[in-house]
What does this fold into?
Amino acid sequence: SRYAESEPLYKQAIAIDEKTLGPDHPGLAADLNNLALLYIAQGRYGEAEPLLKRALTIYEGVYGQENLLYIKCQSDLATAYEQTGKYADADRFYRNALALSQKVLGPNHLETAKLLNSVAFVAYKQGKYADAETLYKWALASSEAALPPDSPLLAACLEDYSRVLRKLNKITEAEQLETRAQTILANQNQPGS
It folds into this structure.
């Protein structure tokens, strides 16, 4: 909620990093990424893109691609593309981040589950419902392995998956997932939860 105050501070940090640490330092990449995330939160996706590309280049040069910072930055760039309707670019970056996450973190890690869900959502947005169904099935399995059974994130995955099933006219399966999601969310709202 304090975006106006944050932006000049991030820009100042970037200027200081460039001067004191140099153009290829991971601290600079972190500040570039943080400013980009601020822009994404504000819907300023075009301004986020070059910052994320620069941060990716730095992270890759310092750590290589098999690093969580690189993976998350790719995911952030894919989000910027997704939000502007550049689904082919979003799909490419999400899938690359997903492949790296599966290799580095494993199939049952929360980051992997989130990336699977993102790839599935991009397929859904493009009307590729059969692909989205397969991806959501994987996302659900990964989410169930990575999250507690009462997690709101698991409920969100169930709801997303159910939308695809409805598009494929698999109403009974969709209703089962929706019931599961509603149960999780209802339990979250119980006193003592």
Observations:
- Residues 150 and 186 are 10 Å apart (CA to CA).
